[in-house]
Structure formats: structure tokens, C-alpha cells
Amino acid sequence: MKGYSQILESINIGIVIIDKEFNIVEWNAWMANYSEKREDDVLGENIYKVFPELDRVCFNRGCKSVFSFGNLVFLSSKLHKFLFPFKLSGAYSASFEYMQQSCYLIPIKDENGETTSLMINVHDVTENAILEKHLKELSYVDGLTGVYNRRTFERRLVE
Amino acid sequence: MSDNVNFFNDEETDALQELMNIAFGQAAAELAEVIDISVTLSFPKLNIVKVSDLMNHIADDVKYINKCNLVEQRYKGDTGGVAYLIFPHGTEKEFVSMFHMDEEDNDHEVFIDVEREVLSEVGNILIGACISKIFDLLKTNVTYTPPHTMIGHKFENHFLKGCFTGEDYAIMLNTGFSLSEKTIEGYLFLVNCQSSIEPLKKALADLFESYE
User: How sure is the predictor about B183, in pLDDT bands with cuts at 50, 70 and 90?
Assistant: First the structure.
């Protein structure tokens, strides 16, 4: 168990585990670091109380799906940008106000196969999001004038 | 059952189809609760086909196979396979208006593939619901890989490579379904590899035993 605890604390992704009542039962060091909320302060608290911003269709629907079907749910940064609003500072803050996150909602089952809790994995994909945004801008915007190019015009016509 | 090579006897075939029917019935009811849209699933069909003939069998049902929207997701447990959710091309816009209900406004962004992401997210839930209910009834656990989604693509033979070899047989379970009073109609194919047959037979035998 000691090894498991060390992995949880040193891994470079956010890990939160909530029970069926949405109370937090695990909050790793990565989450504590970026949220500035210590593990001791959030354990046992309802996740919606700690982060009211989570009360969104995508998160509520994903949790319902995991607890009903026991499947893995992926919440894309392209669509939702982030689940947990972690304000960016430094170089990346010029592109995004908040850390861009890809999140997985993963069922944790007991020995009878019943989903008893849910693990949220939070991946910081801000760097990829900046690169992708830049690449897409290059393909839609004229490099010299900075206005939308012919491809964008044709795409908009089709839409 | 076409291409019957007697992997399952008649009793097992009927039981598997009935089990899928019960599973999909439960999945449809719970999906309505989770995604807030009515879901209708038709009576499932079971076929055991040679992997090299799989494409033809899929094309028999899916007339728009040359240009379709596809969500592919692999699952693994005692039995393993691939789920394919196939919709006609063009339905992706319906998906966005039906399911993209968050307060997020991506309309002004030409840089985001909203349709692909919404299809992927909803497809993941539809596939997860159907598979989990089948394996719940069979009392076996299953895990999933993240979904892969393609829009306006041709369903091609090489999609089936990787987890099947040409001479293997595959267990193909498929159902037609419709969302929100036939606003969107499509197909779900669950293709299990030949090595899944024994675990499936065992799970069925355990299930029969529990009713005796």
C-alpha cells in the first residue's frame, strides 16, 4: 500500500476519487498543487461544494453513465476545455485563461463487480491545445494579412 | 444464423440473443435517464462469420457504408472484441443539437471539431451502456479503451484487422437503433473474436445453472 500511495502522490496527473454520494475520498498531490486545496481540507466534502463549476451537463451525464453502466467516460478538452478551473500563469496564460484538461471518469468496482466509486483522471493538455490551436489558425487564416482564407470561406458556405 | 459452424448449439444461440434483448432493453431504459433522450433498440441478431466475410455482413445491413459516421471502441474482459456504432453521414449535426447542451459556446470557433467530439462522447455512452448490460447479465467484468471517431468515412476492411486474423471466426451481434423518435437511426455491431466463444459458453452455462 505504501508503494501505491507513493505512485498516487508522484504521478503527473490529477486523481480524484468520489463515492456514490459525490463525496471526495481521494485527492492526490497534483490536485492539491493546482487547486490550492489541501487533501485534508477536501476529503469527505461533496465535490460540488468544493468545485461548484462541476455542475455541468457533461460531468453530470458522465457520472450518471459511470455509476449506471460501469463504463469509461472521456471528456475531451476540445469540447469542454476543462473540468476543474485551474488558472494559468506564466507563458501559457497568454493563450488560455485556464488549464486545458482531458479527463477520464473511470468506474471503481467492488469484488461483486458493482461500481462503488468513481475516479476522475485529469490530464493537463494545455501545451497540446496551444499547438493545435496554432496549427488550425495557420490552416484557416492567411499568414500575410491575418484574415480568414478561402478555405474558411468555403467551409462557412457549406455550413 | 448464417455460416453456422456449430460453435453454439440452438439453445445457446437462443439464450444469447434473448440475453442481448434483455440487456438492450435495460440499456435503453437507463440511457433515457442518463442522456435524456428516448432510445429504441431492435431485436438483436447473432451471426458467426469468418473474419474475411465480416465486411460483407456489415454491408448487408448498412447501406451507407461507403460514407458513414463511425465510433469504434474496444473492450476486454474474459471475452474481448470491438464495438462499432455506425450512423449515416450528416447525422453529426443532429447529435450536436441534441446532446451538446452545456453552457459552452463553441459556435464562434472554427478551430474545434465539435461534431466529432460530441459523437465520440455520446457514442461512448451508447456503446458502454449496451456492452455493460450484456456482461452484467453474464456476470463477467469488462474494461474499455477510449473511443475512436470518424466522420464521413468509408468503413474499411482494415478496421477489422489487429484483433482478428482472416481465418478466424467472429461472433457478430448487431442491432438497429433509433434516438429521439427516429431523429437519428443507426447500427451497433459487437464483434467478438473466436477466443471469446469458450468464455461466453461458460458464462451462459453458469447462467443456466443459476436458474435451475
Answer: confident
